[in-house]
Design goal:
By secondary structure, the protein is an alpha+beta fold. The protein is 33% helix and 15% strand. The chain has 17 helices and 16 strands. A seven-stranded antiparallel β-sheet has the order 4-3-2-1-7-6-5, sandwiched between helices. It starts with a helix and ends with a helix. The C terminus is likely disordered.
Length: 497
């Protein structure tokens, strides 16, 4: 986790050189000597950057949009960035999407921090820990209330170098059309053109957001529960809402207990910020809305936010998050093949990726959609992406689904590359020392996902002459868990290639 020392350094800000590019770019990015200032916001949710000679030109990057932090440059998509050895020690690159999750049009923000290599390494480690915990790189559930708070932190991060936040920025980020609704509220709080960032509290943001985007549906529900003109729910009204509206009457009363007077009052005390209302057992409209957005009102089972399934059954008993034609960034006729897409798919948690392998013109195997206009990429670099990114998000096994069209000479190069690049990650032998033939003849079950953690398996068709399988009539039991000839032995990875 990020240490207080690292957090303080990033929050104070660091000078850096900055440039941007996209992984779909074909030209070298234009790195400049212009100096920037970068800092992490106090809530550890955003990075703010601005040119040293123009502090008003602020750019804010929400860390929820960042999928990866890299400490080296990749030259596999564009021409890459050339750095000397000292710059490389202070370099970091953030891969992120712009507006919505996008594994194809990935943007890269590259920074060379103007500090010592030791401080730069601490900053990289601290940022990496924050990125790993974000919503896109983990199975963590994020509640509406957390999303709401991150929206507040994003606006707050637009404060300039003097910690002043322009009202025009607040209005723009809330929505330009709402200026007439939120300006009077800002003026009521004594705010005209700008404010100290400390004035922009979460309570003020919430009130501004309610003015900018009123929820007529929630207002109607509250009115129906509390009655015309009422400004709060009493404990009995709130208990009725929890019992009749939020709880399924078919639910198990032990696992999903019926709300009691004690549990209802406990919720009221935790969400009602007005002490007088809380003591009286009353819940205001704003506190009611806060409850609806919280994890207390989450439809997910709390225990299911962590791993809860039995992961010790045979591998064939599970559904697997899979990707088809993983290397393609578009259609199957003329789109670009990409190394980056493998990185992004694996970071998303996908556990089965497809690699279509063809003979390369230079004697080295290539990955592409054969007999089309799709571009070609080097098989070895795809294996490097698999090695580096398979187990960042999850340690459960990764299956490589080979569609192998190579000739025997290049097929041997495929096998050699898998063994050389993947090394100990590659499962080359059966876990219990069996051969493929005895595995099938004895109708053994496949290993479990837990047994195979941290391993890469290859699914590749075997040559018919290599198979010595029992006849189909002898294989009428447990057929779902015996490897079929077309699928190969998942555990016989090296030989299959």
């Amino acid at each position: 986790l990020m240490t207080e020392k690292t957090f303080a350094a990033l929050q104070a800000g660091l000078e850096c050189r900055k440039w941007e590019e996209t992984v779909m770019a074909w030209k070298r990015p234009s790195a400049t000597n212009e100096r920037f200032f970068v800092r992490l916001d106090s809530h550890k949710t955003c990075l703010t950057l601005w040119p040293l000679d123009n502090p008003k030109a602020i750019t804010v990057l929400d860390l929820n949009r960042v999928t990866d932090l890299r400490t080296k440059t990749f030259d596999d998509e564009g021409e890459g960035v050339i750095l000397d050895e000292q710059e490389q020690q202070r370099f970091l690159c953030l891969a992120y999407w712009e507006d919505i999750p996008d594994m194809v049009n990935v943007l890269l923000l590259s920074l060379v921090l103007e500090t010592t290599a030791a401080v730069a390494e601490e900053c990289r480690a601290g940022l990496r820990s924050l990125i790993k915990e974000n919503i896109n790189n983990s199975m963590r559930f994020i509640s509406p209330s957390e999303q709401h708070f991150r929206a507040y932190a994003f606006i707050r991060a637009h404060a300039d170098s003097n910690d002043r936040l322009a009202t025009s920025t607040v209005i723009r980020l809330l929505g330009k059309d709402c200026a007439d609704l939120v300006t009077p509220l800002l003026q009521l709080n004594g705010i005209e053109t700008d404010m100290a960032v400390s004035q922009f509290t979460y309570e003020l943001f919430s009130e501004l957001e309610r003015q900018a985007a009123p929820r007529a549906d929630l207002d109607a529900e509250f009115k129906k529960l509390a009655g015309d003109g009422a400004t709060y729910l009493d404990a009995a009204q709130f208990a009725k809402f929890l019992t009749e509206h939020q709880r399924d009457p078919r639910a198990n009363e032990i696992l999903d207990p019926i709300p009691t007077a004690t549990s209802v009052l406990d919720i009221i005390r935790r969400f009602e910020i007005d002490p007088a209302l809380a003591r009286a057992g009353h819940l205001s409209k704003n506190a009611f809305f806060a409850y609806l957005m919280s994890t207390e009102n989450d439809f997910h089972t709390p225990a299911h936010r962590a791993e809860y399934q039995d992961m010790t059954r045979p591998l064939s008993h599970y559904y697997c998050a899979s990707s088809h034609n993983t290397y393609l960034t578009g259609d199957q006729l003329k789109s670009k093949s990409s190394y980056e897409i493998y990185r992004q798919v694996l970071l998303s948690g996908c556990r089965c990726i497809e690699i279509d392998i063809w003979d390369g013109a230079n004697g080295e195997p290539e990955v592409t959609h054969g007999k089309t206009l799709c571009t070609k990429i080097d098989f070895r670099k795809v294996m490097e992406a698999v090695r580096d990114y398979s187990f960042i998000t999850s340690d459960y096994p990764v299956l490589l689904s080979f569609e192998n069209h190579t000739s025997p000479p290049q097929m041997r190069k495929v096998a050699a590359a898998c063994i050389e690049i993947l090394g100990p990650l590659l499962l080359k032998e059966f876990l219990d020392g069996l051969t493929y033939q005895t595995f099938v003849a004895e109708k053994r079950r496949l290993p479990s996902p837990r047994d195979l953690r941290g391993k890469v398996l290859i699914k590749n068709k075997r040559r018919k002459e290599d198979l010595d399988l029992p006849s189909e009539s002898d294989d009428d039991t447990e057929s779902a868990i015996v490897p079929a000839p077309g699928a190969g032995a998942a555990a016989g990875a090296g030989a299959g290639a």
